Structure formats: C-alpha cells, structure tokens
Amino acid sequence: MLLRKSPSLEATIRSSEITPQHVFEQHQQTRRRFLASAATLGAAALAARTLPSLINPPTTVHAAGEPLKAIPSKYTLDDPQTPFAKASTYNNFYEYGTDKSDPSHEAYRLQTRPWPIQITGMVKKPQTINIDDLLHYRPLESRVYRFRCVEAWSMIIPWDGYSLSEFINFCQPLPSAKYVQFFSYNDKKVMPDEPSGYDWPYREGLRMDEAMNPLTLLTFGCYGQVLPNQNGAPVRVIVPWKYGYKSAKAIVRFHFTDKEPATTWNVADGREYGFYSNVNPNYDNARWSQAHERRLDTSLLPRNIPTQMFNGYGDQVASLYAGMDLKKFY
Ligand SMILES: Nc1nc2c(c(=O)[nH]1)N[C@H]1C(S)=C(S)[C@@H](COP(=O)(O)O)O[C@H]1N2
Ligand SMILES: [Mo]
C-alpha cells in the first residue's frame, strides 16, 4: 500500500491518516543489525584537511541531544513554538521509511561521527572537510523559523546554525557556478527501510543567490540541542521560504554546478514538485490546495491557517524572483 508506483508526499500523508497503524507496521519487518559505516568513507584521509581558519581544530564529538551554544539572531519569529516532542517525532526522512513516525524510531542507526563532507564541482579547490570543523567555523545563531511542508502542515522551530553563505564563501565557488546541490548520506545498511522508486541519495539544490540569502541556514541544532538524527543530524539546510523538502538532511556533499541540479522530488514527480518550490498559497503545485495549513501542535488542528506567500518571508526573498512567472517556475 505504501509502495506506490508514483511516489507522492501527499498520497503518503493521506494514507497515513486513514490507514490503521498495524498495516503501516507490516512493512517494518525485522531490522538489520546496526553497522557503523562512516569508516568506509576514508576518514583517515581527512585528518590533515581542516578549515584553514581554525588554529586548534576542536576534537569534541557531540552526541545527539547535547546542548549547543547559540546566540540569538535577528531572523527570529515571536510565534509560539512547536513542541520539541512533536518536531522530533513527526518527520519526513524517507531513507528511514515513509511513515511520519519512522524516522524517530529508525534514525538512531546513523553514526554521525566521523562525518566527512565533500566540496565538489566548480570551486577553486575541491576538498573534503570534517563536520566538527564546519560546526565550529562560525558562531551559531538560534533562529526561530516558520517551516512548512508541501503536505500542508507547518511548525515554528528554533534552529541553530549560521548562514549557508558563510560556508559557501569558504568553498570559493567559481564565477561559473550558478547552483549548489546538496547530497544526503545514503547507506542501505543503516537505512534498511529505504523505499524503492526514488533515485537515492536524496538530493536537493538551490540557485546560488537563494543559497547566499542570509535566511538560508546551515543547521546543526534545534531547540538548543544538537539535531536529533531524525531531524537531519549532523548537518542540514533550512530554507524557510520554501517547502520543507528543499531542506536536505544529513548532508555529505556540497556540489557547485552551472546547471539546474536534479532534485529527488522533482525527479520522482516533476509535475508536483518543481525546482523552486517556493511556498505559494496561490499555486496548488501538489494535488491539493496550498492556500491553508495546519500548525503542528499536540493536537490535530484543522487546516485553518492561511498560508503566506513565501511562507511570510517575502520582504527578504521576493526580489530573488522579480520578473519570474511563479506558476511556470513553481
Ligand atoms: N535526506 C532527506 N532530507 C529531507 C527529506 C528526506 O526524505 N530525506 N524530507 C524533506 C521533507 S519532505 C521535509 S518536510 C523536511 C522535514 O524536516 P523535519 O523532519 O525536520 O521536520 O525534511 C526534508 N529533508
Ligand atoms: Mo515535506
């Protein structure tokens, strides 16, 4: 039932809301034993390649749930926050299964250290860095963002990170680079329920000016803690004016390119999931209306909140799309 021929986020939530739990659990059979896998990525080769700005590269290994130090940010909403218990148990992370509760049960399998990160494509110097250098590269800011999924739920979440632009400047993209693509971690050994029918690894991408917008957050934590694995540890992006699927989790590679990159949902169903995916109440890019949303809370509230253009971030991002037909570039 879950293994649809034409994958769709919408179909999934619809069936998850009407299908009894035991039916969902049928596909969650015996799990394979946990196998540490990051070692195969050649961590030893990274030892000598740290960010040059760090004189004393930190050696701390952060366990999930460890507190993070972050300074308050000007990019912050006052809205009441979604409870952490909700934000960390109602997730989309398809590598761990298609049910919203799967990631919180299964993502513990992921080993987030060591975690090499590749910088590839049109950059001055392709290289591999390690996650702890990235984490300590700039002071972390705590930013409370509105976060909206194309499936019409929304949350208010405090994320901890710094602007992706800071990291992109470190990468030194060539002038020819027009896009940056994100690749998520992928390993069947720790993702035994990864559904077929998708072109794994999970990939997403942004136009360079979108990626350089100060709102785009390179994210290491939420609610003042290291990201739970199900929320994308050890590093993800958060792009608050776009639907949630643009915000790739567990990133292992940043690839700079001059062509609009392939993205997982666009490849799976390009009619529904466009490259831009800006939150747009006037355009029903999924099979249902995007005009309203339901704030995820402890209760199942109706979809009674009017969705805002660009998720309410129009002042900061509308100019990126000046002159573009947003129905064509959905
Ligand atoms: N690697 C990866 N990243 C992903 C996804 C995924 O399935 N795999 N799902 C996306 C979707 S559809 C959404 S809505 C958000 C959900 O983020 P959250 O679970 O932290 O709320 O993650 C996005 N990033
Ligand atoms: Mo989503």
Keywords:
330 residues, alpha+beta, Sulfite Oxidase, Chain A, domain 2, 5-stranded mixed sheet, 16% helix, 20% strand, binds ligand MTE, binds molybdenum atom, oxidoreductase activity, acting on a sulfur group of donors, quinone or similar compound as acceptor, OxRdtase_Mopterin-bd_dom
Can I get a quick summary?
The chain is built from nine helices and 13 strands.
Description:
- This protein has 330 residues and is of the alpha+beta class.
- The protein folds into 2 domains: 18-59; 66-321, Sulfite Oxidase, Chain A, domain 2, CATH 3.90.420.10.
- 16% of the residues lie in helices and 20% in strands.
- It has helices at residues 9-18, 21-26, 84-87, 102-106, 131-135, 164-171, 208-212, 264-268, 314-317, and strands at 71-72, 116-121, 127-130, 141-148, 153-163, 179-184, 203-207, 217-222, 225-226, 236-238, 251-257, 292-295, 305-306.
- The strands form 2 sheets. Strands 1, 4, 5, 8, 9, 10, 12 and 13 form an 8-stranded mixed β-sheet that branches. A 5-stranded mixed β-sheet has the order 3-2-11-6-7.
- Strand 4 (141-148) and strand 5 form a beta hairpin.
- The radius of gyration is 19 Å and the shape is globular.
- The relative contact order is 0.17.
- The model is unreliable at 1-63 (pLDDT under 50).
- The site of molybdenum atom has 8 residues, from loops.
- Residues 9, 91-95, 149, 184, 202, 231-232, 244-245, 247-250 line the site of the ligand Nc1nc2c(c(=O)[nH]1)N[C@H]1C(S)=C(S)[C@@H](COP(=O)(O)O)O[C@H]1N2.
- Its cofactor is Mo-molybdopterin.
- One of its GO terms (molecular function) is molybdopterin cofactor binding.
- InterPro entries: MsrP, OxRdtase_Mopterin-bd_dom, OxRdtase_Mopterin-bd_sf, TAT_signal.
- Residues 111-265 form the Oxidoreductase molybdopterin-binding domain.
- This is Protein-methionine-sulfoxide reductase catalytic subunit MsrP.
